[in-house]
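haha ok so turns out i had the wrong file open the whole time. this is the CORRECT one, sorry everyone. sequence first:
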Amino acid sequence: MMSPDPLVELAGRTAWAPPGGESRVRVTVHNPGDRDEQYRLDVLGDAARWAQLEPRLLAVPAGESGVTDVVLRPPHGTTAPPGTALGVRCVRVGGAEQGVVAEADLLVSPVADLDARIEPAVGSGARRSRHVVTLHRHGSAPAPVVIETGDPRQALGFAVAPREVTVEPGGTERVYVTARTRRPVLLGARRTHPFTVGYRVRGAPGQGELAARFEQRPVLGVAGVLGIVLVALGLVAGLMFWAFRYPLPAAPPTSAAPATAASGDPVQGHFVIYGPPTPIDDVANLGAAERLLSALQAGGVDARLVDSRDSDQLADGLSGLWVVLRDGFPTAEAAHAECTAHRDLAPYCYAVAPR
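then structure:
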């Protein structure tokens, strides 16, 4: 009579391991038969290269359970694409080789139960590049995530919206990052600017870091330079034609001084953003922004709705964002006080310093 297959269970639906660190996942093996059995366990999938079982062999009496640990030690730089699984196969010694397999989602991240990715990892433009950081929470409690940017050459400025976001269990949030060059290049070769986007859960150990690059193009490419040369040649030819055909009068006419116009950024001083910005091309989210604005104005708050593309003080996301804000605060303390005073209407309000 053949013995029944064992029952194998991994603790938790997600197995987390930090790159360069160590974590353990408990495995429970139950013997449902009426005689004692010995089982051999193996790790399956990509994790088999840097994981081991301690112990690998289990002697389990009839009707009872035994436990072992999967020890995960991913090297520095290890990543696990979404959908990667950790598999553990349990085979009865002396029985069928196929055995029983138990699986859990595998997360390799410096921050426990938080997966973070940046897209695109390489952006390009003459003055700026736009990126989206996607955060997914695997844990059972909300995670207040803080976003920080780093530029080793100090050649870039950054706009991040929002700089802190709460990710609910099983939920996903997005953060929009715009990298701007401090020195636009008119002509010449491309310049590469590496930078990092760090993320951490407030009050928890561990910090992750995403690597990205901004490939800065010259403002004028080959086509632009050729166009300028052609226009200049045309102007010279035109001036020579008019100079020969229509000589200048003896007394040159007086000309009025050109008028100058000044324009200012629509967002001034320290300011507060009352809620997460919403993409302009998302009609449903536009309604959400307008509802937040109406609620704030009904509560006596002098808030307004601003298109991020009209201001250098705001991040643009992928195609522009609607931002509900109030500006003109003289200090950061005054801006923080505004958020505190209206936390009941805008629980996600945060203050931003001017550039």
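Residues 222-245 form the longest helix (24 residues).
again sry for the mixup
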